[in-house]
Write the C-alpha cells for this entry.
Amino acid sequence: MDRKQSKNESSEVAGRIYDVSDYKREDPLSSGLAQTHEQVSDTYAEGEIKAVIDDVNGRDIEIKKEKEEKKY
C-alpha cells in the first residue's frame, strides 16, 4: 500500500459517523461505531457521571477507579 492510498483510506475512516445500519454490518469499523454508540447511549440514559454496574436485583454496584500516579 502506498502512502497516498493509505492517506485516502485514513480520511475515509475519519469521516465516518454512526448509522443505524452499522448494527447489521460485520466490518470492524461499523462494529466499533455501533458498539460506541451503544455505550454512549447507555451512559446518557443512565444519567450518572459515576460509573456503576446495574445488578440483576436492581442494586447499583459502583466501579471504583484506581488512583493513577503522575509520571514525570
Remarks:
- The CA atoms of residues 23 and 69 lie 38 Å apart.
